[in-house]
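pasting nicotinamidase for the record, 366 residues
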Amino acid sequence: MGGKVSSMSPAPYDYDPFTSLRQNQFSDEEYENLFRFFDSQKRGFWTREDFRRFISAFFSNKQRPYFMLNDRIEEYFQDTDFNQDEKIDYNEFILAWKTTIKLAVRPISALVIVDVQNDFISGSLALHSCPANHQGEEVVPVINRVIRNVNFDVVAYTYDWHPLNHISFYENRHLRKEAPESPIRADDAHILDTVLFVGPPNLTSTIEQVLWPAHCIQKTPGADLHPDLIRIDNAIHVYKGTNPEIDSYSAFWDNMKLSKTSLDDQLRERFVTDVYVVGLATDVCVSATAMHAVENNYRTVLIEDACRGVNEREIEVKRAELAENGCIFVDSDVVPGMVAGDDRRPEVARGTFVENLKTIGRYHPR
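structre below
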């Protein structure tokens, strides 16, 4: 959007209404206190300047405001001013902002650790042998630091967990019939080529499959998590790719969305709002998991320095697709503040705000 950039300064107050909200379990009284806090003229409504001070304090990192375009601030004001009387009353504020504030100030956050398994680090499908020449083991100390330093509500470990006859294995390319329209014949295929197989009658007509070296075979050392990776008690464990006839990059769904894992149900049982994705490989299972997290309406963050991939070009393609769909990209050093609700980024909260407007029938796209 156009417009000048607003460099709003934090108000010189010791009292932080957002911290008070969190400490007092988001009570109605605390929301009223927050509204009064920004009502500079004590007339029971916010002027534009009051609203700007609220936006400045809300979209901040430990009370240091993020830069926002004046046009975006005005858009938020117009979206909140339901009756268009050029001021914000308490009911408008609560309807427009209560959900967004709660999710930003006290998110329920899950760390999803994708496929940090031996075969992807030192085994049959080690990333250092793939086109990008990434070192998969480099994610382990970063993920361990995140586990130690960040108070996640939920931690999940995912595993590629394939049977011996899995469709993705290059070694098994002759076990299934090729589709006539396959761009490459199985006899001519190389590792990382894509072949089109005839699908099982009960699943689908054709299956497009990248051929990988046999990897992460169930109950083998190659399928184990890297020995240095910290294991958390009471974590969620998700085993994917167990059906020999279809691959499953995502920790939520197989590649054709014919069947889902237990991950989404388990996250919802724990009231998770935000999903942070790390692991291997960025352009395959990590990106597929992040995309499905977005589709399942989780606020989704990919921690880039805790991921490594297969192919640099594909990493950029997948990154662009994820960004277009609302995934946020950060480095691990900022994650503690985000999970604590002290680092409240405009790009993370925007989707929540818009979805809430849609829910209450107040969304008017411009």
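The chain is about 35% helix and 15% strand.
Confidence is low (pLDDT under 50) at residues 1-13.
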